[in-house]
Amino acid sequence: MTLQQLHYAIVISESGSMNKAAEILYIAQPSLTSAIKELEREIGITIFNRSGKGVTLTADGTEFITYARQVYQQYEALLEKYTAGGIKKKFGVSAQHYSFAVQAFVEMVNQFGTYDYEFAMRETKTAEVISDVSTMKSEIGILYLSDFNRQMMNRLFHAGQLTFHHLIDCPVSVYLWKEHPLAGRGAITFEELAPYPCLTFEQGDRSSFYFAEEIFSTADYARVIKACDRSTMLNLMKGLGGYTFCSGLICDQLNGSDYAAVPIAEDNSIMEIGYITRKNVVLSAMGTCYLEKLREYLEQNTE
Questions:
Q1: Model confidence at 269: pLDDT above 90
Q2: Which of 82, 126, 186, 247 has its CA 20 to 30 A from that of 147?
Q3: Do 240 and 225 meet the contact criterion of CB atoms below 8 Å apart?
Q4: What is the C-alpha R_g of the chain?
C-alpha cells in the first residue's frame, strides 16, 4: 500500500467517477483502475462498487477512506511543514442551508486568503453533512437538532464517530418574501399559512422526516414544493408566495433584505443549532477561525 494509492482512492471517492478522477490526477484511466484493483487485492476488500453510472463506496470502502484521509492529511501536513513551498492546506465545511454559516466561511477565507489554501463550502443534504464529516471530507458540519429528530440524529452521530457541539437555541420563525401578505405580522399562526405553499429542501430518495431541514416536517400540508438550493428557495418565496420554517438567523449580506423572518405564534419548538466534528480530531487553524467567526456572528445577531 502506497501513499499514491491512498491519494488515488480518495480522489475517486470524491469525484464518483474513474474517468473524472483520472483527469484530476493526470493519469490514464486504465492505469488508475489497475492501481485501485492492486490496492483492493492487497488489503483484501472491495473499496468501490462499479457501475455504468460511476463508482460508489462499499461499506468496507467507506471505513477504509476514512482512515486513508487521516493518513494522507498527516502526509500533507508533513510536506507543508518540511518541504520548500509546501502544498495548499485544505479545509471544508458541510452545512444545511444556513446563510450565517456561509457568512462565517466568507469571513474566515478573507482572513486566510486563497493563495496557500484550498477551501470548500458545501451547502448540502442533511445525510451528506453527516457523511462528509464522518469520512473527513469536511472538517466541520453545521445542522440542527429538535425534540423530534434528536434521538435518531444522535444514533447517526455515534455510528459515524461524531460529536455534536451546541452553538445556539433558536425559536422557530416563518421565512417569506417581505411583500408577502403575512410578512408584516408580529407572529403567524399555522392556520394563516394554510393557503400558501410550504417550501422544503429536497433530501434525496432515501431521506426520512428526521433529515428534513424544516422543523415541522411531519405536518400535513396542502401544498408542498421542494427545492435543492437556497437561491431557488428564495425565488419561490418571491414568485409563488411560498414560505419555509427557519431559525430566524438571516444574513441580509448574502440573502438580501427582501425577505423577513416572523415568529410562529403559540409554539414553543426550539431549533438547537450546532456543529459536528469527528471524535478526537484536533481542529485545524482554519477550523478554529471558522468557529470563532461563526460564534461572533451569532452573538452579534441575537442580542
A1: no
A2: 186
A3: yes
A4: 21
Distances (CA, A) of 103 to 14, 141, 226, 263, 294: 25, 15, 24, 23, 8
270-278 vs 140-145, strand pairing mode: antiparallel
DSSP tag of 207: -
- pTM beyond 0.85: the answer is no
Residue with cell 466534528: 277
Q: How far is CA 68 from CA 36, 105, 155, 183, 211, in A?
A: 13, 26, 24, 50, 28
Q: With the C-alpha atoms ordered 263, 273, 219, 234, is the resulting torsion angle positive or negative?
A: positive
pLDDT of residue 88: 65
pLDDT band at 253 (very low <50, low <70, confident <90, very high): confident
Domains along the sequence of the chain with CATH: 1-84 (1.10.10.10), 169-272 (3.40.190.10)
- Poorest-confidence range of 31-45, 65-79, 97-111? 65-79
Strand partners, 57: 48
**Measuring CA to CA, how many Å separate 177 from each of 7, 161, 174, 258, 301?**
46, 40, 10, 6, 20
Whether residue 249 is predicted with pLDDT greater than 90 in this model: the reply is no
Q: What are phi and psi of 200, to 5 degrees?
A: -135, 155
In DSSP notation, 177-189 reads: ETTSTTTT-SSB-
Q: What is the Cα–Cα distance from 183 to 175, expressed in whole angstroms? A: 9
Residue 146 carries which DSSP code?
A: -
Report the C-alpha gap between 37 and 52 in whole angstroms.
Answer: 17
Residues composing the chain:
303
Q: Would you say 69 and 254 are in contact if contact means Cβ atoms under 8 Å apart?
A: no
**Pair 91, 122: CB distance under 8 Å:** no
Rounded distance between C-alpha atoms, residue 200 and residue 47, angstroms: 34
